[in-house]
Write a structure and sequence with these properties.
The protein has 108 residues and is an all-alpha fold. 57% of the residues lie in helices and 0% in strands. It has two helices and no strands.
Length: 108
């Protein structure tokens, strides 16, 4: 008589779990209250500082280094300040708008 191969152990014999237990909790899906927070405001300021340095001051320093111009005066600092303030306001405005759209999406 032939051996019946249907009597073997199977994957469904619960010899090991199919999946790892879920490690997420409800706190992982909660959004911060309000459209913006102090942390978001300060992070936008930090990002704006980097933008002003790398995209305004650094090109001006490179310009002074490779040309015979010895100094540009005080206007680069004014340009960097304007870029910093405008960048901070723009980034924070866009971040608040994005947070609001995320909140509306989560409510649906």
């Amino acid at each position: 008589m032939k051996r019946d191969f249907w009597e073997r152990a199977s994957v469904h014999a619960n010899t090991r779990p199919d999946r790892l237990p879920v490690q997420t909790t409800t706190e992982d899906f909660l959004l911060a209250p309000g459209p913006g927070s102090v942390r978001m405001f300060l992070e936008c300021g930090l990002a704006s500082c980097g933008i002003a340095v790398f995209f305004v001051l650094l090109p001006l320093v490179i310009f002074v280094a490779i040309t015979p111009v010895e100094s540009l005066g005080t206007w680069p600092w004014l340009a960097a300040g304007v870029a910093f303030a405008a960048g901070w306001a723009g980034l924070f405005g866009l971040a608040v708008r994005e947070a609001e759209s995320d909140r509306r999406w989560a409510e649906d």
